[in-house]
Amino acid sequence: MAIGMRLWFVYAYRYAFFFPDSRSYVESAQNGYPNSIRPWGYSALILPLLHQPYIRIAILQHLIGLAMIVAGYAFLRRRGCRPWVSALAMVPLALDARVLTIEHYVLAETAYLAFTAAGLFLIAWRDKVGWVAAALGGTLLACAALTRSVGLPILALTGVYLLVRRAGILRIIAYVVPAVALLGGYMAFYHQHWGVYAMGEYQGRFLYARIVSIADCDKLKLTDDQRKLCLPNPTHSTSWDQRPDQFLWAASSPAYQFHRSEKDDPILQKYALTVIEQEPGKYLALVARQTGWHLMWRAPLVDNGECLALQWVPPKRPGDSCVAAYYLPVKIGNAPAPSFLVDNPQANALHAYGNWVTTPGPLYAIGVLVTLFAAVWRFRRRPWRDAADAMLFTFGGFGLLIVSVATSLFDYRYAEPAVLMIPVGLALAGNRIAALAKTPAPAAAPGPAPGPGPEKATAADEVDGEPPAALIEQTRTS
Fold first, then answer.
1. 6-34 pLDDT, tens per residue?
2. Sign of the C-alpha dihedral computed for residues 81, 87, 90 and 91 taken in this order
3. Are 1 and 88 in contact, with CB atoms under 8 Å apart?
4. pLDDT tens digits for 39-52?
5. Which residues of the chain have pLDDT under 70?
6. Rounded distance between C-alpha atoms, residue 45 and residue 147, angstroms
7. DSSP alpha helices (H): ranges in 263-344?
8. Could you tell me which residues come within 8 angstroms of residue 213 by beta carbon, excluding any fewer than 6 positions away?
9. Left if phi > 0, otherwise alpha if psi is -120 to 50, otherwise beta: which for 162?
């Protein structure tokens, strides 16, 4: 099914899909230096394919998706899950219409997920983490962070996992050294072109856009320069609430008016952190509310929020409003012109498929609850290792949902890692629960056996190297 769906997708859509972010990845690859918004890792990956039809990038990403399905199944079988459980856990990644659509885009998500999955599978493959696996895992997860900066939290979480697993100092060093070397090398590469040691210079700008609509500037203690960044006419429209990225690019945004340069990123970050510090409740409520949308069957999206969501399902006519457009080779700085497949029944059928076959949000909630239950239920009856592995995948996937909402916006595109990681964690947690259910309770300590007096006691009565009670009593009476 997974192979058939991807073949159908390539047959129906003859060109790769384009999103505005796609242009920055291609431009960065053509220029040969990092982009100030997004890391250069994905640009480096597509560099060999730039002078060929971009559909080859999409085909490569579909093949990567198939490889992840095989790797995930093999990993779960290695960890003792039954074949049907392992296969079921891969169904979301295999058939989710949003995953298929994102694989067809010239975007970093598929490569990022592949690096992340490979690193985590490698580290959790064996009962005892080897130093080679730790080093390769650290390298792959660092590559994920260089593909999308949201990979940094997973890199840190896996380090904590190794500490909890007591992997040993040598293995932790083997994990950390290549990761630090790659990230440090990239920051030096970035400094060479932009004069700043950083992964990028838009993190503060994205955080500003995230919180500016909830900032009640009349009640906040701000400097005069910071007050210029407040919205002159605060809006509480649902559209702007669901698409805070509009505060990045709209000409009416104070950030765009007063601090358009990348060098102003620290100013915007300082403003955002000041608002969060003084209004933490409003910020946490916003993050909790929109993270909860990922747990619903359908998020309550309207207007621009719904428009963004439609980008990630198969389009009837590529290039129409609010759907994917085709990516044709163009000069740097020009948006590719859309090219329609008119009266294409395959695209119509795939669009209908996309309206129904997506990973349901409640599955994520079930994964979190089952993983928590597996970690605490009868935890003394079985080593905690498999619970730690389940938590690594489940909370890694769910944590990425939270991070994306907290630092940017709600977007189904950012939920792609959860489509793989949470079902894998759920399968591992279910496997642990099944094993615990079959594990008998430890036998109660036997009481004193009836029979002859102290003189008949034997060495079998000795426990943990202690002399038998009868011998102690005999010594006292003598």
1. 999 999 998 999 998 998 899 899 888 88
2. negative
3. no
4. 999 999 999 998 88
5. 233-239, 329-343, 441-478
6. 9
7. 265-278, 280-293, 303-310
8. 231, 234, 235, 236, 240, 241, 244, 247
9. alpha
